[in-house]
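Action item from last week, closing it out:
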Amino acid sequence: MTSPRRTFAIISHPDAGKTTLTEKLLYVGGAIHLAGEVKARGANRRARSDWMKIEQQRGISVTSSVMTFERDGITFNLLDTPGHEDFSEDTYRTLTAVDSAVMVIDAAKGIEPQTRKLFEVCRLRSVPIITFVNKVDREGRPPFELLDEIADVLALDVSPMNWPIGMGGEFEGVMDLATRRISRPEGDSRTFQGTVDEAPLSDRFAEEVELAEAGYAPFDGDAYRHGDLTPVYFGSALKDFGPAELISALAAHAPPPRPQPAEPAPVSPDDGEVTGFVFKVQANMDPQHRDRIAFMRLCSGTFKRGMKLTPTGHGKPIAVHSPILFFAQDREIADEAFPGDIIGIPNHGTLRVGDTLSERADVRFTGLPNFAPEILRRVALKDPTKTKQLRKALDDMAEEGVTQVFYPEIGSNWIIGVVGQLQLDVLISRLETEYKVAAALEPAPFDTARWVSAANPADLKAFTDLNRAAMAKDRDGNPVFLAKSAWEVGYVADRYPAVTFAATRER
């Protein structure tokens, strides 16, 4: 029997309309009762998934949120991912926890750099993609040009599922290619309010539809689920063209929970024992309670509230008494959960990103690495009496994957590593608002970092002894080589062939 679970992410370039689409999917799915209800109070008007202060200020999604809703007997777990280019690490980890994705493309801009980067992450894990070409009610590029770009740039077969009847000022609606029925815009705002007809098309649009059906692959469910074909929906999230069709497509075609890569063998959702992995840790979702939530993707078994699970991090079983289901910042206690579900586990630093939790201790999920930082900074504390608070804050955010912390072998200044510039702004903002720590970031004498290891411990010791001024430890005590440039990494690696310099590290 097919599982009634669909766990999916929405990926896009910034400003393609992902936040608006998220809201409309929740509205169509019955999770909210009024379009606009999930917008934050005040002039920022951010969707409910964007709850962190810096997100509301900047109008971008900084952290990944989870929203669960049900429709027609199917439970949808929607993981909202950061769209900003500086958040590839958190986004990557979120994409490890989904079984499919919706890719949002702006009809005027087509494939943008971040879209392509996120798509490649999906391809690495064979995550099937449904494409939503947004904003067809505005002036945009011709539909054929957009479809050909998706096919060429992403090396995918494309299968249009509907067709825009005009765009921008000529927009007359969207035709479902299977039923030939056209959803029409109504009223001054030109939104979809339920009017559907089968009125004949003008010669121009009839010819377009005929060419589209002849020129592109018919939809093939197996090819889609294998990641070889993307069904394409044209629409406007803002004007309500498309969200209902997307939910129906996810229900009908998106894969249920899939086997997950693990050692010693992949874990099937049909396995009886409960297993899952932590793909995200978030502190202070509720600033009043200094809480810390580990987001776990359940991979197998039926989870029951109160059961004991063993984390790979320290091997000591923990009882999960208050597991949480999410609607963005809102939450409710989960009495049970099934493969594909995302549950939150309150904890005080015992769980970290990459941890496997299971009823048995001999399984470990793979594919959740740390990435070598591209920017390094020293942290300068403005009030020296707050050293302890700073240490806790940096440890907390390192646990979440927002930053990495390196402790140099020589000198006392801690070094922060991030993948993108915006994470530095997030760090300073959260230090101030959540931890009441005033700090500044100063240039570090290094530009990047690599984890070092060697098959022979003597080779590693010889290297670290000769390069102590450039050596540090990460939070787990692993040796890290701090380099002044990517060129230096290559130069040193050539001089020490027995030492491995790794840009990623799995826990």
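Closing note: The domain at 5-253 is CATH 3.40.50.300 (Rossmann fold).
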